[in-house]
Amino acid sequence: MELNSVKEIEVLIVGAGPCGLALACDLARRDVRALVVEQAPALFPGSRGKGVQPRTREVLDDLGVGDAVREHGGPAPVGMVWRDGKRQQEHDMFRRAAPTDAEPYGEPWLMPQWRTQEILLARLRELGGDVVFSTALTGLGQDADGVTAHLSGGPVRASFLVAADGGRSTVRRELGIAMTGEEVDPAPMLVADVRVAEGALDRLNWHVMNGDQGFLALCPLPGTADFQLTAQFKEGEPDTSPEGVRALVAARTHLAAGDIAEVHWSSGFRPRAALADRFRDGRVFLAGDAAHVHSPAGGQGLNTSVQDAYNLGWKLGQVLRHGAPVSLLDSYEEERRPIAAGMLGLSTRIHRGEQERGAAVQQLGLGYREGPLSMGRSGALHSGDRAPDGPTTGGRRLFDVFRGPHFTLLAVGTDAALPAFDGCDGAQVRVHRTDACEAYGKGLFLVRPDGYIGWAGEDSSGLARYLAPLGVTAVTRC
Which of 177, 227, 234 is nearest to 201 (CA)? Predict the structure, then answer.
C-alpha cells in the first residue's frame, strides 16, 4: 500500500504489533476503512510475547486465525530445573486444565510473537487491508471532527487514531499522557532467540538454571527449531551481542558457547509495571503497551493488548457504521483500564514470587460486570461475564454461532417471545435458540461482538432500550 494514495481514512492505527494488527483485522471485517502504519521496515522479529492465554485463543479464533494458531503453536512444556549441570526435577509453572464445553482452551499455548504477527498480517491482507512500513508519526493534531496525523510519508486525516506503538509510544508522548508505575525488579534481563546445536539440549522441557548471578531459562519455541533464552542479571548489564549471549550460556549452563549455533535476535530490558493515566484523549485512543507495560513473568502483556483491540474494534464499528453516538467510545477506557490495572498487579506479584500462575493468568474469569454496558442477569450469568462456549441443539458450537462482527441474542431453555431480528448475514443482531446449557442456565442473553454478555433477562423487555445507544435501533427481517 502506498501512503501517498491515502489521504482520508476512518481509523489510523499507529503500530503493527499484535494489538494494532488484531484491531485492523476486526475493523476490516466491519468494513471500516483503517490504515496501519509502522515505523520499522518490517514486523517485530523476536519471540518476546510468546504466551497465548486461553481467552486470547478464543479472540483469535473469532478473528478467523484459530486454525493457524493451532498449527504453528503448541502447549507450554513442563519446566526442568537444573543445578551444576545436572537435572534436578520437573516443575510445572502453569495451571493446566482439560478442555470443557464452556472453556475449550484449558492450557497455556506458546507461539513466538513474530509468528502471531505474521498470522494476523496474513489475515488482514485476506480481508483487504495491509501495513505501511517505514512510516513514522512525527506529530498530530485533532479537532471536533477528526485527527490530522503528520507522518514521514505525508499527512493523513482520520476520524480516529489508535496508538498501538508500544511502551515508548510516540503518540502518548505527543498527547502528554503520563505513565504511572514502578520498577518490578532492579535486576536487568536479557531475552534472545537462539538456535541450539542438534543434540545439545532436548526440546521436551522448559530448561531453568538457577545460580548466584540470576536465573537463565531456555524454552523451546513450538513450530520452530529455536529456543527463547531469558536471563536475569543480579550484577552488571546484559551483553546482547551474539558473542555476549554465547558467553552467558557457557557461564551459566552445561552448554558450551559453540552449542549456540545462531543468535537470531536479542534485547535487554528492566522489568517494569506502568499504566497510562488515561486511555483516551478526544479522538485518540491508547491500546496495548502504549497504555500498559507489564513484567513478562505473568504472560499478560500481549494478551491484554489483543483484548484491548477486541474491545475497541466493535465500538468503533458501531460509531462509524451504525450511527452509535461517539460517547459509546467512553466505555473503552471505563472497561479496559481497570482490567489492565488488575493484570499489571498480577504480573508483578508473579514476577516477585508472591503468586503462582493459576487460573487468573488464563483471563477467562475477566469481565465487565461493573462496566457501563452491562445490564441485567439471568440463569447462571450476569451481564458483563464472558459468554461461555457450549453445544447447541442444532449441533453447532456456541462459539461458531458468535463468530463474526454481529451481536447474538441467545435464548437458552426458554420459549420466551423474541424480537423480530432475523439470522441473515447482514443482521446486526442474530437470534439463536437452544435447549438447556449448563454454563448459561435459563434465560435470554445478548452476546456482544467481543464475546461478553451485554444484557440478560428472563424476557426481552428492556432489550430495545439497551440496544439503542449501541446503534441498534431497527428490528427488521431480511
Answer: 227
Q: Which helix (H) or strand (E) is 121 found in, with range? A: helix 113-126
| Same domain? 232 vs 253 | yes
Question: CA nearest 400: which of 62, 167, 171, 146?
Answer: 62
**Mind spelling out the 3-state secondary structure of 66-83?**
HHHHHHHCEECCCEEEEE
Same domain, 247 and 396: no
**Does residue 151 sit in helix, strand or coil?**
strand
In one-letter notation, the amino acid at residue 59 is V
Instruction: Indicate whether 237 belongs to any domain.
Output: yes
Same-domain check for residues 263 and 278: no
What HEC string does 425-452 produce?
Answer: CCCCEEEEEECCECCCECEEEEECCCCE
pTM above 0.85, yes or no: yes
Three-state secondary structure call for residue 47: coil
Beta-carbon contacts of 337 under 8 Å, excluding residues fewer than 6 positions away, are: 275, 278, 279, 291
Asked if the structure places residue 404 within a domain, the reply is: yes
pLDDT digits (tens, 9 = 90+) for 294-342: 998 878 999 999 999 999 999 999 999 999 999 999 999 999 999 999 9
Query: What is the extent of the structural domain holding 466?
Result: 377-470
Q: What is the pLDDT of residues 198-235, one digit of tens each?
A: 999 999 999 999 988 899 999 999 999 999 999 999 99
Distance in angstroms (rounded) separating the CA atoms of residues 189 and 215: 10
The answer to whether position 463 is within a domain reads yes
